[in-house]
Please model this.
Amino acid sequence: MKTQTLSSAELHAHKFNSANLGLLLLKLRTFIALFIILGFFSFMVDGFLEPASLIIMIKHISINAFLALGITFVIITAGIDLSVGATLGFCGMVAGYMIAKGIVLPMFGIAIFPSVWIIVPVVLVIGGLIGAVNGLIITRYNVAPFICTLGTMYVIRGAAMLLSAGETFPGLQGNPQLGNTGFDLIGSGDFLAIPYAIWLMFIVAAIIAYIAKKLPFGRHVYAIGDNERAAELSGVKVNRVKIWVYTISGLCAALAGIVVTSQLVASHPATGTAFEMNAIAAVVLGGTSLAGGRGTISGTLIGAFVIGILADGLVMMGVSEFWQMVIKGLVIIIAVIIDQMQSKMQYKAAITSQKSVS
Model:
């Protein structure tokens, strides 16, 4: 009987290949999770994968995707933005206010009711300004992103309450006589039988992915997250990049606010509460490291799909809202643990590669 022994070199190669396989599986975890969830709910819920059902789910997913796509750059720079949910709610209230009450000019005793083509850009600018303020506070006054955005979250949420005294602006279809109709079409309209919200989601994802991969700004974002001091010494204008990163986050939150308000045809100051948690979960689940320097836009988009399909699937199964919260929390914890495992495995792989070269 013959026995075969492995040389040290062969044993090393075997371990290295096993480590590479494990690392590959960790990198593909979001895709694997998505397929598992789709398979599970398609088995448990009748008609889960029917086209009409999928379109409704993706339409729901688009809201979280807007927030997650915007916050991805923030997390890649090792920052965080807890104010996106409040920004969503406030921007929705601003849109509702302009449709319901118009822009009041007390000195002339009149109110101007702008068209949708004016309302949407104004709301986007407001969202971008909120993000820019976050970036300025963080960079100029060296305030920790968590503390800064936590504070602005409360300020913005309070401002949304003050705008309507805590009341809802209902019936935002507009008035044909005032020329401000059409806002509801953003949330209810479609092109080629696909809702505008879904088209917008993929357009925004494509734009941000292009920025991340093709433009110097994207490379600077990754450089800051990887090593901020080294990026600064290499000529990257760190503070300017960070301000733009938070501005993009605010813009995406404003877009989400417009879409949500349009879908509901009403705006309420509490809209978007805790939405930032789902967005952060989608980003982390998609492979973006909370330590910064690593992440992809495609991963974030898949992460948003995982969170959204999980939420809708649990609702279709009749799972209690309380259990839904427990499951979402567990998903976030598991995602962070896996992210830490991936970081350690990448570090070990890099060390092993350096030793083999030397």
In short: DSSP finds 14 helices and four strands in the chain. The chain has one domain: 56-339. Residues 19 and 345 are 7 Å apart (CA to CA).
